[in-house]
User: Fold this.
Amino acid sequence: MIAESVLALPGAFTAEDLHREVASRAPGIGLATVYRAIAVMQDAGTLTVVGHRENSALLAACDRSDHHHHLVCTSCASVVGVECPLGDRAVAAGGGHLVTRHEITLYGLCAACRARAGR
Ligand SMILES: [Zn+2]
Ligand SMILES: [Zn+2]
Ligand SMILES: [Zn+2]
Assistant:
């Protein structure tokens, strides 16, 4: 049921967004239950953290397994996968650090929202 609610949400959402959607279908399901379901779906790889909004993680369904990043529309929350802008550069310029992991999220307006905003 919670997985169905995920499909009903367009683009990226927070746990609170998902809880609101779930509660509209099944009142009485608590936020803790939603968090547990999110953890299960993250373990299964069907849900990924694609960014952040204020202090909440933004989640989205993503079935890509290759290394990539996400572009999140700040207006409609649509998400698209983008290639890694760092490519194979594992050593950061400057102090000679070896970069072992990184997280990049790009935020902006999608084409549809730009057209709507006239930008
Ligand atoms: Zn993705
Ligand atoms: Zn948009
Ligand atoms: Zn990358």
